[in-house]
Amino acid sequence: MKKNIINHLQALALMLVAATATTGCNKSDNETTENNGQAMIDCIMTRTSIRAYTDQPIGADSIEVLLRAGMAAPTAVNAQPWHFIAITDKAKLEELAAGSFQPQMLQQAALAIVVCGDLTKTLEGVGQQFWIQDCSAATENILLAAHALGLGAVWTAAYPIEERIASVSEALHLPSTLIPLCTIVIGHPAEQPEPKDKWKPENVSYNEYGK
Amino acid sequence: MKKNIINHLQALALMLVAATATTGCNKSDNETTENNGQAMIDCIMTRTSIRAYTDQPIGADSIEVLLRAGMAAPTAVNAQPWHFIAITDKAKLEELAAGSFQPQMLQQAALAIVVCGDLTKTLEGVGQQFWIQDCSAATENILLAAHALGLGAVWTAAYPIEERIASVSEALHLPSTLIPLCTIVIGHPAEQPEPKDKWKPENVSYNEYGK
User: Which residues of B touch A65 (CB under 8 A)?
Assistant: First the structure.
């Protein structure tokens, strides 16, 4: 009997070691960071455009997470030349849909975030155009954060297509200093498409072009 | 003695329960997804530009993870109008540094990835310019993946600054159809700056501008 108990004790101890080694309990900071890192890589690799949504709404907390993720993007000389318009009002989403090339997505969506460049905050001279890169980085952050929250999203471009810029600007009453880069359409996913595998080794050179 | 063993056994069993309950062992898929999602949000919020690096090299496996993350970005009409040049050769990094506005970073770096728009793969007409947004999204993915791998990185712009484009193009022998958007400078961090808090509620409107 005593031997049995000791055997159980040893088995439990081994399970405990296994549990702590493989699941992160009592992990060192480095191990925690590594696991979080893998979760991040997985999130990047599994994000894909979602264009069909259920009618479930998206809460204010989630909207703030998305907006914070957008504003966490890097910007040239830290100018942060952007403004974000979060749209949950169904009538306003319909108004955006009316001017959209894919209206049914905006009609279904619980949320749209229009990412705008703010020309009052851009750099001078040729650097003014960095707002496009800055706002694109913010958009990618929002898409990834949406995926992280279990939401589905798709980037629909406005800039540099004049008629789309005009249509979005009119619907949202944008001043002329705000240029809509894109409308991110967001909702709870009603489809689960496979992420595209876009890895192409021929799109890489090493140390100089063609090598 | 026997009672002692049973007490130890109970204590171990409780520790085992605690370990599996709090760390994700035997978690449901939903819980795993939620935790991974939070890890992703944390990664987005804690990424910041790293400009000083140790002399530790970066392995080929990590370089491929970064490049795969870049190519996982969304692109307009799935054109994937890009080419990536990964530079680890010290002489080539020195050559890039010579034309850079912040040469010391490239001299220290283990790796640079130059993200280029490929004008042979862009859309027609005004849509050609989408390569800037597509390559910016790829750049942000690479920055986040670098952070996820415990590396430090910083986005240094080339496009649309003519002299920087010319300098990078010459060093990497780029054909005229490849336009370098930026050089991502990457290494093992030798500094740990606090991430900037860029959250500004005044940068958000709800449903239309100014509301």
Answer: 41
Which one of A50, A140, A164 would you mutate to disrupt binding with B, by most B Cβ within 10 Å of its Cβ? Answer: A140
| Whether A80 and A109 share a structural domain | yes
- Tell me the per-residue pLDDT of A77-100, one tens digit each, with 9 for 90 and over: 999 999 999 999 999 999 999 988
Kindly state whether residues B23 and B93 are assigned to the same domain: no
Residue of A nearest to B6 (CA): A5
The answer to whether residue B209 is domain-embedded is no
Under 8 Å CB pairs connecting chains A and B tally to 281
The total number of residues shown for chain B amounts to 211
Give A16-35 pLDDT, tens digit per residue. Answer: 433 333 322 233 445 556 77
The span from the CA of B2 to the CA of B5, in Å, is: 5
| Domain-embedded: residue B202 | no
pTM higher than 0.95: no
Specify whether B23 is located in the same domain as B110: no
Please count the structural domains in chain B.
Answer: 2
Q: Please report whether residue B15 resides in a domain.
A: yes
Within-domain flag for B208: no
Choose among B76, B81, B116: nearest CA to A161: B76
The verdict on a CB contact (< 8 Å) between B172 and A9 is no
Q: Given A44, A89, A205, which is nearest B144 (Cβ)?
A: A44
Nearest-CA neighbor of A106 among A119, A118, A122, A89?
A89
User: Could you tell me if B7 and B87 lie in one domain?
Assistant: no
Q: Are residues A14 and A83 in the same domain?
A: no
Distance from CA of A167 to the nearest CA of B (A): 13
Residue B134: which of B97, B189, B79 has the closest Cα? B79
DSSP helix/strand/coil, B135: helix
Domain that holds residue B27: 2-46
pLDDT of residue B162: 97
Whose structure tokens read 């204010």? Answer: A60
Query: Which are the contacts of A156, defined by CB distance < 8 A and separation ≥ 6?
Result: A100, A101, A102, A105, A182, A183, A184, A185
